[in-house]
Amino acid sequence: MKQANPSNEILISGGGVSGMRAALDLAETGYKVHLVEGSSDIGGLAKDLEKSCMRACCASASGPEGQGEEEMVRNDCFLCTLDPLLVEVKTHPGITVYNNAKIESIEGGPGAFKAVLSSGKWKTELETGAVIVATGLEPFDASLKSELGWGRYPDVLTSVEFEKLLIDAASPGGKLARPSDGKIPEKIAFLQCVGSRDVNVGASYCSSVCCQYAAKEAMTARTYSPETSITIFYIDVRSHGKDWERFTDRAKDDFGIVFKKGLPSRVTGTPGNRALILRYEDEETGEYREEEFDLVVLSVGLVPGESLRETAKILGIQLTDHDLIKVNPPDEINTDRAGIFAAGTVTGPCDIAEATARGSAAAAAVGELIPEGRLKKDEKKYPPERDITGQEVRMGIYLADGLPTALAGAARNIPHTVHVEEGLKPGEEGLMTLRRTIAKEKLNRVLIAGFDPDMYNGVFREALRETGLNPYLLEVTALSETGLPGPVPEKKAVEMLKRAAARTAKLRPLYDSKFPVNKSALVVGAGVSGLNAALSLARQGFPVILIEKESEAGGRLRKTVKTSSGMETGPYLKDLLKQVKGEPRITLMTGSTLKEVSGVVGDFTSAVMTPSGEQEIDHGVLVIAAGASEYRPSEYMFGEDERVITQSDLALKMAAGTFPKDKTIVMIQCVGSRSDEHPYCSRTCCADAVRNAIDLKAQNPDRHVFILHRDIRTYGLAEDLYREARDAGVNFLRFDEDMPPGVEPRKDSLQVRIYDTQLRANIAITADYLVLSCGWVAGKSNEELAGTLDTVLDEDGFFVPAQEKFYPQDMECEGMFMCGGCIYPASIEEAVTQGRAAAGRAAAILAKEELAGPPMHAVVDPDLCASCLSCVRLCPYEAPFINDEGKAEVLALVCRGCGICVSECPAKALSLELCTDEQVLAELEVVSAL
Amino acid sequence: MIVAEQKPIEEVLKSIEPFDKILVLGCNTCVAVCMAGGEKEAGILASMIRLAREKAGKLVDVLEKTVERQCDDEFLLAEKELYDKVEAVLSTACGVGVQQLSALLQIPVLPALNTKFMGGTKDHGTWSERCSGCGDCVLELTGGICPVSRCAKTLLNGPCGGSADGKCEVNPDTDCAWQLIIDRMTALERLDKLLEIQPAKNWKTARDGGPRTQTREDVKL
What we know:
The complex is a heterodimer of chains A (930) and B (221). With 930 residues, chain A is α/β, with parallel strands linked by helices. Chain A contains 22 helices and 46 strands. In chain A, a hairpin with a 4-residue loop joins strand 37 and strand 38. In chain B, 28% of the residues lie in helices and 19% in strands.
């Protein structure tokens, strides 16, 4: 039972991608978060990945010397944006991070758990309303596959170790060097599925991410060492994520990376020679081959570690046969103990974007459980602000602990300086010194040197505010050219300090703009993700208007029978609709479409066309859940011969009991997917086909079922289904993209011909039914919606997240979110999670009474404005507009402070208050005087 | 607006060569909007002059100022003390501004721009001529497309034989104004209007009648 006065403190175990996202969303929503991380730093597996690819992501970047841009990896991995995320978590006032710590015990129930945290040094007890487990999975221990030579040969590396090699290659003057002798490897082999899809060691499931990271690592390696040839040995290429298929194609076509089907069984060394010998069967010829490589990378999978088992035991939650946290499909978040939630890979392997979504969804789950928790936030009281108008500049310069002492002498000679403090430490001690001296010396400008501004601006500004000084009279400088604190020659440091001081002297008091938030949401699309988003938001206490263009809610749930994991969708939908109906905060409007959206985050106004005419709706956030459409094939005589049906037709027929039990079935995969017209993987069809095949076999084990495929992509836990199907006697035949199967209608059968690439033979199958696994295509409404929202779609017609890895549910426009099939094909489980994730993200806005826009935006001097429209035309975010006075005005909440308009304004009417010309010129004067 | 473009820098430098103290005076109206002579452009020009003269070893003192409109004395006279400090003024206004200021001062006022035409913004950074100021508007007859400014021959009764594929024979990048007029009138279902023969245009209202002055007695002080 939930307690009457639930705690608003939330405990999160695990500081990886998922735990961080949950922590931030919860803290923004108004909960107090305790983030417990077992290792010495947060960031999880992602922080150890090679991120130098950021140089390649950036279109303007050039590659390593002598290379054209076309050779660069452009994988838009966004890993470079992990660092700001880490900083956000570490500095958020609502989050306390405990490194090297773990949960020792937990008692109580939802709303009122008592947890004991401990590290080697301390032990503490706290009350918490809910717990999120996001401890993640670990890379497979490659030594368990001793035949692959890891640990025996120095040049056999795991993919995690190879990332480090790439980081070294990316560093200035670095090169791709193999560990044994530092030579550039001429030939590299990647071995996939090490510790994945393996019933003997590691995990029997597919780890979901290795095919993609192997391609990324291979492409990055080629970028640093173009003369290296790379072969990836695989069982199936699983590029089932958004844009992954194209990425893999680029690896093959543009980077010349060779993909070879079949896994080498053994890696051996040669005496007196560093070459590694791989033995494998060549699929093309069927011959047994031995090939030498200089470096072998084992693409290790993700497996549960001992700590997960331990955590589960302490928390009293159940694990599955895979030793993963047990959830109840289609839900991926709720564990079997109320008030304890799972996020990230602990419920099954997934990529960064999915882990992020699960983190946001877990935050939403907490909000649903204890919505009253976030209301307990107390407003902090500050002393009244000191008026500094007309006062002479009194600057205090604070030097970080460890900076050269000579700087202090230089600082004392800087004009306006009345106080110099050396050895400032981060943390409360330093802040106390800062507050005390500001008050004592009556400082009105503060310069703090030797700290990362991104990380410390927040805490130091807060300290200024606590002394009654305007927080923007502060300048934090790293005192290095990179913007991050680091060693810098003394002379240079002095110059930089003088420059920063010149800027500081010109700072003026600035104020955040405040905007009230309309605490309601508009959700577009009442399919599986939209329904879940609406329910979650309503349970978190926010009114929701849910619009659906069809006459009935349910989306694809209405057309499916069961999920690939076997859950029946009919009863699930019925229950979902019942919940929506029973939720007074949700207004469901069917037969309605979105016509227009105006306004900004927290204050949108939309026009919705309903059957009874146009209606205007005010709302604070928007969630797009428009779904996708099933591809209607023109291939394989579909529509011409009634024995040719789709997988969904088959499922419906079987459920209705009208499908004959003795017929031979042939299924063809990738119909309308991975084609020229739709060059992406539709993600769900392999698992759906395998599920149907298993059901067909269950009906009658003696019937023949053939699945003709290019790669079987039963990623993640669905791999178990693939194994089950093979055990049940389903025949899998592989064909090549260039040689698709042919169908010939006979009077009483269908002749299906295929060139089986594994048998290297033509095969003819006499079938009674041909079942086409049709992919998903972007919904027609996407284009219309994109027009209404003034956003762009990707080349396949799907919506594009603001940032695919760490903000997969956010749209470019702040306050707009999206989930489900309108972004990319998703399984029902994934759509449920994404819906809840979008709700988690949206709640972080709706929970606020008002939104504060820091003065990072451009401002217009109306006296100078010539209304030339340059800013209006040039702004990428549509922040400036011409107001009723006929002058330009910048919407503070929309402006990102990029400065484009400021530099382009012909009348120089625009400025960035935190970076005025006056400040820049003051800095330049110092430089020119040196 | 009046559309202008900056003169080649060599020409500007030559014109100010004799002077050691000048004022670059920007205009914050039409030429600011067409990005030729607003505060920003005037500032850039001033910097270019300083750099060029420093390089040439002949330092020059360049003051900068931008006024709201150079075609009104009040705005110009507000900067009186600046003119006293310099030997010449380099105006980044259109030809109107240059003359307006010149009439007020005893020192040379030099143009920094070439004034081009009266036009509108096509897209950011492109402007097209739309009006010649003929003093007798015919747009009502021609579907809102001006044959006086946009037809190379200022024809009033349909296109000439040089119109091909909708383009003008004078310049293949220029649309034939009459093609545009006919398309537009067809769309408006007013094509019959063009059957009416237009007599020879009275150019007395245009430049041909000599420099023009306009007076409105009712608003005169």
